[in-house]
Design a protein that fits this description.
Helix content is about 55%, strand content about 0%. It has 9 helices and no strands. The protein is globular.
Length: about 240
């Protein structure tokens, strides 16, 4: 539904491809050199474990869902999850979020029984709740660990500045375009451009009272009588 609405403002597969290209270009642009060694420390260790988890669990998940639960396979592996250019931490985070959606997302209430059957298949193949919980903890560690403090860093390169500027312009363009055609709040929230409303108790609605029935005058016959009623002659002075 979101994709159909976005097509009205010209957003198509080429624009998705362009967005990912800009992300990867910004990530790979030269950065200021620091004394931080990415191959050491808890973040590096978690990143390596996530990569190993992906290589194992994706292989267990993909063929099982593709053969036995094709609809769930399409949902879980759509887009960035199956794109080899996606950073492994991002791919695993999206993968875990989509498995959570199979389990309890309100948007998938109509397919809940089939979704749970797919999760049962994955559990049998070794992709258990415990495994998913451990992977979530690794992803959380990578996402929440503060970057090392940089002192006397060189200015950001012109190439990186240009890449980040172009990526920011792409995000702004399609964010404003989405708000122009997508009106459902839940869809905007899924896109990351909407906020959830705070829950406020609804005010009581006034009780509607029926209006008094309208009495229409009945046409008079030629002799002065009205159908269903007595017509009394008028008294004239």
């Amino acid at each position: 539904t979101i994709r159909t609405e976005m097509q009205k403002v010209g957003f198509g597969p080429a624009d998705v491809q362009q967005g990912w290209s800009l992300v990867l270009r910004a990530c790979s642009a030269p950065q200021a050199s620091t004394g931080f060694t990415p191959d050491a420390g808890p973040v590096a260790d978690a990143t390596q474990k996530i990569a190993a988890w992906q290589s194992t669990m994706f292989l267990r998940t993909r063929p099982a869902l593709r053969r036995l639960h094709p609809a769930q396979h399409a949902f879980v592996f759509e887009g960035a999850v199956s794109d080899p250019r996606t950073p492994k931490v991002v791919a695993v985070a999206l993968f875990l979020d989509r498995l959570d959606a199979l389990e309890s997302s309100p948007d998938r209430k109509s397919t809940r029984k089939a979704d749970h059957a797919a999760l049962a298949t994955l559990d049998h193949r070794g992709v258990t709740k415990e495994q998913r919980k451990e992977a979530k903890a690794l992803v959380h560690l990578v996402e929440t660990t503060a970057a090392p403090e940089v002192t006397d860093a060189a200015p950001i390169s012109d190439e990186r500045t240009a890449a980040l500027t172009e990526l920011h312009a792409w995000v702004q363009d399609w964010t404003e375009s989405a708000r122009a055609v997508i009106t459902r709040r839940d869809h905007l929230i899924r896109l990351g451009v909407g906020k959830r409303r705070s829950r406020v108790a609804p005010s009581p609605q006034p009780v509607a009272t029926p209006n008094a029935p309208t009495v229409q005058a009945l046409p008079a016959a030629s002799n002065g009588a009205v159908s269903g009623a007595l017509a009394l002659p008028a008294h004239h002075a």
